Amino acid sequence: MIEKEDIKIGLEFILPIRLREYEEEVARFRHRQIMGEDCPVLPRYRTDLETLEGFKIIATVGRPFFKVVDSPREYFETSSKPHHLGSFVRVTCDEIENEVFYLSTKDIVERGETLI
Predict the structure, then answer these.
(1) Has residue 38 been placed in a domain?
(2) Which of 74, 75, 42 is nearest to 59 (CA)?
(3) What is the pLDDT, as a whole number, of residue 81?
(4) Which of 59, 76, 90, 95 meets the CB 3.0–4.6 Å disulfide criterion with 44?
(5) Could you tell me whether strands 113-114 and 12-14 are parallel, antiparallel, or unpaired per DSSP bridges?
(6) Is residue 60 part of a domain?
(7) How many independent structural domains does the chain possess?
(8) What is the CB neighbour count within 10 angstroms for residue 32?
């Protein structure tokens, strides 16, 4: 469990994966190997992210680990009526190079697990 006060630069954490989908892909992968297919598709870890742009699903070959690279900030939608979007923090993912995500701190607190 991650507390909101723990979300600081350097924090490394994981988010839950879509376990059922991963298990199904592993079963299909093993079946393809048994059947002798030349180029089986590797199973992928699918992770739901609540980002500043909305909900996003990332698919990676390895289990994605995230690292906080900036302090949490409050974001607002700029339109005729300003609307509070929530607190978001900039993170990187070890499985996806050169991409930065702005994840919801609420989502990290509710679903994230720290790495020991």
Answers:
(1) no
(2) 42
(3) 64
(4) 59
(5) antiparallel
(6) yes
(7) 1
(8) 14
